[in-house]
Design goal:
By secondary structure, this protein is an all-alpha fold. The protein folds into two domains: about 50 residues, Arc Repressor Mutant, subunit A; about 150 residues, Tetracycline Repressor, domain 2 (Orthogonal Bundle). About 75% of the residues lie in helices and about 0% in strands. It is built from ten helices and no strands. It is globular, with a radius of gyration of 19 Å. It starts with 11 loop residues before the first helix and ends in a 6-residue tail after the last helix.
């Protein structure tokens, strides 16, 4: 009997990957509901339907689990942005509606609680040097990934940059975090389509650059 072409063999490495992703999904739910400090690894294991030993076989401690989860979410967001860009050959400014839709979907999937959760861990990291460096490194990696997307868009659209790709990426990340925090307090204002459209216009026209004259 032949195996379907799209079916991956369940190797030990694949099992470990599936277990890790399942734990990350469970952790995302528990952290979002109870916060970083209010969550225990026992609760994450219970939510995932695994033993606590399964958690420790993949993550050293709760801090390590949270940082792995944050990196996983960053990667998902970058993939979603790339997918949005690659889904159309129209110029960046013509795809603003697609990016507004992306903002809405990401808010629905991750939940506004994640903006607060990031700030909770950020305050914890400020008082814990090792966690602070790990969080800073994770943020640097996120900024580098955003900068790569910006550079690719500039090259493909023939845009003249107003800032370096890295500086533009820092501004984009800071802006998105600020918008997310605003939406936790006033979702009816910061989640308004007109506001989100203005945000994406600012990003597309103010940061990516303008066509050569």
């Amino acid at each position: 009997m032949t195996r379907p072409a799209d079916l991956e063999p369940l190797t030990p490495e694949r099992r470990r990957q599936m277990t890790r992703e399942h734990l990350l999904r469970a952790a995302a739910q528990v952290f979002a509901e109870q916060g970083f400090h209010g969550t225990s690894l026992d609760e994450v294991a219970a939510a995932a339907g695994f033993s606590k030993g399964a958690v420790y076989s993949n993550f050293r401690n709760k801090e390590d689990l949270f940082l792995a989860l944050l990196g996983w979410i960053y990667a998902q967001l970058i993939d979603a942005v790339k997918e949005t860009i690659e889904s159309s050959e129209a110029p960046s400014g013509s795809r603003l509606t697609d990016f507004v839709d992306l903002l809405r979907r990401q808010d629905f999937e991750a939940g506004a609680a994640w903006s607060v959760l990031y700030e909770e861990f950020h305050l914890y990291a400020l008082r814990n040097p090792a966690a602070r460096e790990k969080l800073a490194e994770l943020d640097r990696q996120d900024i580098d990934a955003v900068a790569t997307v910006i550079e690719h868009e500039r090259d493909s659209q023939g845009l003249e940059p107003l800032q370096s790709a890295t500086n533009s990426a820092r501004i984009v990340v800071a802006l998105m975090r600020g918008v997310a925090m605003m939406r936790t307090l006033e979702p009816e204002v910061a989640g308004d389509d007109a506001f989100l459209q203005a945000v994406m216009e600012f990003v597309a026209r103010g940061l990516l650059g303008a066509p050569p004259s």
